């Protein structure tokens, strides 16, 4: 299914070099190799006098395999944008295509399937379910994905091993450090092998060592071709990304590329 | 999500918070047990009353002097047009050859004191009647024998006494053949009544029964008698017998029922009426207990509701996380439904067990009899409450966008 009509306000606030197609009135072709396409996205909270315009017309295209960092001051709308990307919320205006499919046309069941299979979401506050072991937490997306018990356990252990927590699988979140909890959360985001990994300030609550661990994991994900979008305040975190966009007051104000698409940090070799 | 998975996550939810789960369990258990047990007590007591009444026999009519219940005094003083219900009237009624009447048992009653050489005076009710009293009414001779028609003719000083009274007056030996003093006059005990289950305020096992002629001569005088028990030929003939009796009595007592100024000199009640009265009072007792039970179920239900609401509010965030991970609305509802249903069902079944166990014991002199419908009713209501308030808030949370649920609290 591919969207042909586009509602675009064309009010992009800044330069958006890779925003293919631009804001033309004519029906847009689905950008080849684009996983995420946002057109004229606006998000308004509340109504009347109390209304807050968190996003004021965002156009953005993210290509498969890219590593995107979203930066900007507090309250600029980063999380709002991320929640839309993760299908955790619905935009008040504009069009969001995920893998070429207009998300607004999906019903509850289809949305659940998209969240389950295409998106891995990492929250700043971990959002693990208390009283469930690390293993059970990581298995949860697979449970909703209908994966059989034995296979589920194998995949979850694999994911926990990937984040270096093979020896902590039976611990409950309360018994894990913040960095370990965030790694469990990352394992949970990865376990379904989603196309896109979204992380909203994944290192916001972590010390430098844990931050390095988490960034290392994200770096390794780009090598296997995952698309990553990460929100951060810190330039050091932004430096890991291949592309950095900045948001201010709900507008996209800058878009810059650190290295070519497909090149990984350090060796610069194409995958 | 498969059924097994739903069950597993529900079970995890239940065991995750043991205090909450046990409070829910307890609330449902108490509510269910209270409903079943209280209804069982009400039912038990109404059955008890019905048993007592059927013991009285259903083929008898009671003719009372006076126009209402319990007025032994007969017609009012100003009423001169009608005659009183006397022993003579009773005898003439008995001799009238009515087709549906087997026996007429006249009775006079009075209260006085009796004593023996072994015991002090105790007050009892004295019944003066004829020998067929022991065949028609529920008072039966236990040991010894009845007084005879000849005793009635002679106004003999013989008595039959109740079993409780017998042991009271003669704690050591048999009362048979002994002499007791009835208001100072010596009487010989010729028989002792079989023990009866007590029907009302007066203890049926503490009565003294003597020939009606003697009681009238020594104590009540020859005026009006208090009641007559009329035995119909069968329980099917009670209504016919009542008609016949009324015709004869109206004639004998010169009472015209169509004359609105005249007061009825007697009233006839049959056991069916008595049965209905008692049954309806037992019914209202059961209804009362049922209301109390319903209140306790409600209170239990509110407790469960409270726990469930707190739970879901607490767990709205969890619902948000699950939705973010790809849980569909039915998957979340299924989990909460199974959780709530398991908890309340378990509590309900425990409540049923407690109630059935409790019903084995006599409560305040009443053996509870569990009403069949009360078990599914109590169970159904409590499970419905638990499930509704467990699932409804969860359904609301599940209908939210994940971010809304995640942001709450
Ligand atoms: N649910 C909501 N209701 C009302 N206003 C909201 C809501 N969520 C966000 N906002 C507002 O929208 C704006 C953008 O919020 P958002 O959370 O996206 O900021 P952010 O860029 O993630 O900030 P931070 O870096 O502090 O996390 C803010 O002004 C915020 O107050
Ligand atoms: Mg934020």
Structure described in brief:
The complex is a heterodimer of chains A (271) and B (409). Chain A has 271 residues and is α/β, with parallel strands linked by helices.
Supply database-style keywords.
heterodimer, A: 271 residues, Rossmann fold, six-stranded mixed sheet, four-stranded antiparallel sheet, 7 helices, 10 strands, 28% helix, disordered N terminus, disordered C terminus, B: 409 residues, alpha+beta, 12 helices, 16% strand, binds magnesium ion
Describe the structure.
- The complex is a heterodimer of chains A (271) and B (409).
- Chain A is of the alpha/beta class and 271 residues long.
- Chain A has 7 helices and 10 strands.
- Chain A has helices at 78-85, 108-117, 134-144, 149-162, 178-190, 208-223, 235-238, and strands spanning 34-45, 52-63, 67-71, 93-98, 101-102, 119-122, 196-200, 227-231, 243-248, 251-257.
- In chain A, the strands form 2 sheets. Chain A has a 6-stranded mixed β-sheet, sandwiched between helices. Chain A has a 4-stranded antiparallel β-sheet with strand order 2-1-4-5, covered by helices on one side.
- The longest helix of chain A is centred in the C-terminal third of the chain and has 16 residues, at 208-223.
- The two termini of chain A are 29 Å apart.
- In chain A, 48% of the residues are buried.
- Chain B is of the alpha+beta class and 409 residues long.
- Chain B folds into 2 domains: 3-52 and 277-407, no CATH class; 67-264, no CATH class.
- In chain B, 53% of the residues lie in helices and 16% in strands.
- Chain B has a 6-stranded mixed beta barrel with strand order 2-3-8-5-7-6, surrounded by 4 helices.
- In chain B, helix 2 (18-56) packs antiparallel against helix 11 and helix 9 (271-324) packs antiparallel against helix 10 (329-358).
- The longest helix of chain B has 54 residues, at 271-324.
- Chains A and B meet through helix 2 and helix 3 of A and helix 1, helix 9 and helix 12 of B.
- Magnesium ion is lined by residues 78-79 of chain A.
């Amino acid at each position: 299914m591919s969207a042909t009509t586009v509602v675009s306000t064309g009010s992009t606030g800044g330069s958006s070099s890779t925003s293919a197609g631009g804001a033309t009135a004519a029906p847009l072709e689905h950008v080849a190799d684009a996983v995420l396409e946002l057109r004229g996205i606006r998000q308004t909270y509340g109504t009347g006098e109390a209304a807050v315009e968190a996003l004021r017309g965002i156009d953005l295209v993210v290509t498969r395999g890219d590593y995107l960092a979203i930066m900007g001051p507090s309250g600029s709308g980063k999380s709002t944008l991320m929640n839309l990307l993760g299908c955790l919320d619905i935009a008040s205006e504009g069009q969001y295509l995920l893998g070429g499919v207009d998300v607004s046309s999906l019903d509850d069941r289809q949305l659940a399937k998209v969240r389950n299979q295409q998106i891995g979401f990492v929250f700043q506050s971990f959002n693990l379910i208390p009283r469930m072991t690390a293993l059970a937490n990581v298995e949860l997306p697979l449970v909703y994905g209908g994966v059989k018990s034995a296979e589920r356990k194998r995949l979850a252990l694999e994911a926990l091993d990937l984040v270096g927590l093979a020896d902590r699988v039976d611990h409950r979140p309360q018994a894990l450090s913040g960095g370990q909890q965030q790694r469990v959360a990352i394992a949970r985001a990865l376990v379904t092998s989603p196309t896109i990994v979204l992380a909203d300030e994944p290192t916001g609550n972590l010390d430098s060592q844990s931050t390095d661990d988490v960034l290392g994991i994200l770096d390794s994900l780009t090598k296997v071709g995952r698309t990553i979008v990460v929100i951060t305040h810190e330039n050091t975190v932004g430096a890991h990304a291949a592309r950095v966009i900045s948001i201010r007051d709900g507008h996209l104000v800058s878009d810059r590329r650190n290295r070519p698409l497909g090149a990984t940090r350090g060796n610069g070799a194409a995958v | 999500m498969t059924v097994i998975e739903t069950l597993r996550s529900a079970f995890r939810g239940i065991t995750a918070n043991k205090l909450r789960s046990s409070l829910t369990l307890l609330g449902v258990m108490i509510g269910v047990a209270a409903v079943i047990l209280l209804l069982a007590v009400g039912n038990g007591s109404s059955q008890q009353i019905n048993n007592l009444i059927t013991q009285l026999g259903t083929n008898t009519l009671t003719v009372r002097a006076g126009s209402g219940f319990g007025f032994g005094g007969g017609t009012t003083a100003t009423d001169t047009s009608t005659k009183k219900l006397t022993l003579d009237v009773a005898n003439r009624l008995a001799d009238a050859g009515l087709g549906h009447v087997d026996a007429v048992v006249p009775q006079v009653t009075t209260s006085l004191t009796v004593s023996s050489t072994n015991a002090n005076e105790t007050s009892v009710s004295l019944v003066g009647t004829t020998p067929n009293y022991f065949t028609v009414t529920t008072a039966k001779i236990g040991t010894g024998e009845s007084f005879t028609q000849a005793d009635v003719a002679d106004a003999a000083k013989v008595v039959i006494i109740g079993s409780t009274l017998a042991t009271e007056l003669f704690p050591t030996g048999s009362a048979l053949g002994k002499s007791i003093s009835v208001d100072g006059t010596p009487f010989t005990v010729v028989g002792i009544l079989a023990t009866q289950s007590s029907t009302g305020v007066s203890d049926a096992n503490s009565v003294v029964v003597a020939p009606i002629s003697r009681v009238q001569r020594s104590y009540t005088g020859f005026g009006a008698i208090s009641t007559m028990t009329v035995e119909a030929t069968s329980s099917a003939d009670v209504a016919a017998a009542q008609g016949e009796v009324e015709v004869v009595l109206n004639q004998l007592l010169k009472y015209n029922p169509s004359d609105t100024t005249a007061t009825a000199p007697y009233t006839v009640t049959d056991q069916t009426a008595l049965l209905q009265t008692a049954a309806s009072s037992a019914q209202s007792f059961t209804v009362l207990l049922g209301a109390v039970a319903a209140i306790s179920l409600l209170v239990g239900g509110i407790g469960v509701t409270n726990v469930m609401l707190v739970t879901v509010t607490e767990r709205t965030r969890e619902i948000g996380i699950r939705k973010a991970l790809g849980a569909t609305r039915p998957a979340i509802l299924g989990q909460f439904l199974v959780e709530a249903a398991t908890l309340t069902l378990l509590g309900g079944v425990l409540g049923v067990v407690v109630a059935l166990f409790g019903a084995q014991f006599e409560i305040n002199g009443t053996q509870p009899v569990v009403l069949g419908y009360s078990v599914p009713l109590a169970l159904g209501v409590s499970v419905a409450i638990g499930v509704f308030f467990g699932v409804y808030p969860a359904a609301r949370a599940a209908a939210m966008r994940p971010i809304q649920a995640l942001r709450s609290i």
